[in-house]
Amino acid sequence: MSGEPLIRIENMVHGYTMAGERMTVLKGLSFTISHGEFVAIIGPSGSGKSTLMNMIGCLDLSNEGSYSLDGQDVRKLSDNRMAQIRNEKIGFIFQSFNLLPKLSAVENVELPLIYRGMTHRERRKLAEVALEKVGLHDRMHHRPSELSGGQQQRVAIARALAGNPPMLLADEPTGALDTKTGQEVMQMIKMLNAQGHTIILITHDLEIAKQAKRVIRIQDGNLVEDRRNDE
Length: 231
Prior knowledge:
The chain has 231 residues and is an alpha/beta fold.
């Protein structure tokens, strides 16, 4: 793909001090991710993949190295600008869905759009389009308790999609689902990638990672493998 990559990470180092001992979690990671890719970041518990996800999602800043998202140097941004970047550039999909129980599906999908200063009519239109995209237009007035686990995750995907961010960041999106429902959610994620959405999926499950087009494997804070699944 031509042009500036969506993500450029160079020599990323991050750690913390615990009980007087310095723990280095990320040890000089470098890679790029282009617009339209579907990448799985895989590693066992304690490998550093969750810390890396926080960096990619602009939820935290690394101690050293650089991170450019859509051409912007994240480390140079103010806290307010970081929050704006998270809202505009990244759609988050979480294992636990993170839906508000008292709100309907369409109201949950609208939530991130409130912070963009949109009118209610604008938000509602985008939310309805996103729910239709994930096959839930006929459930948009249902609350989470009235939806199955798979339907709740689809609402969460619609919420991530509604603002049309350049990147969808999915953290173990099938972790709370049974195998069949998890497969359905993965099919939806692959469909969204086929439509042009950049997908970054964090997982410890090799079978899930195999469904991505590219796998980045993290172990003990090091990048130990970066390959395409069609190789």
